[in-house]
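Narrative of accomplishments. A recurring question from our advisory board has been how the design workflow behaves on a single, concrete structure rather than in aggregate. To address it, we present the structure tokens for one chain from the evaluation set, followed by the sequence designed for it. No filtering or post-editing was applied between the two.
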């Protein structure tokens, strides 16, 4: 799987645009916890089930850059937005 870079601000916009229940839906699809999915989107604390392979480079414009070794969660979130015709 190919690494993906996104700005932290864009990641937060995606998170906030997701319909209610999306974190639970993604967690169930990936057999993890909703808290782990929230952490993926820049949660304030890292809880049980935290996703590995997320790298934050702070600073710069738009809150810095986030690199995902595995973009599966991001892709699922974008799919949910698309299914609901929600722009982020």
């Amino acid at each position: 799987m190919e690494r993906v870079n996104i700005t932290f601000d864009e990641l937060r916009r995606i998170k906030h645009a997701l319909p209610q229940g999306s974190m639970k839906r993604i967690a169930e699809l990936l057999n993890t916890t909703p808290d782990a999915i929230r952490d993926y989107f820049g949660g304030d604390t890292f809880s049980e089930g935290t996703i590995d392979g997320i790298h934050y480079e702070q600073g710069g414009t738009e809150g810095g850059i986030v690199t995902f070794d595995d973009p599966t969660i991001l892709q699922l979130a974008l799919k949910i937005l698309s299914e609901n015709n929600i722009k982020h």
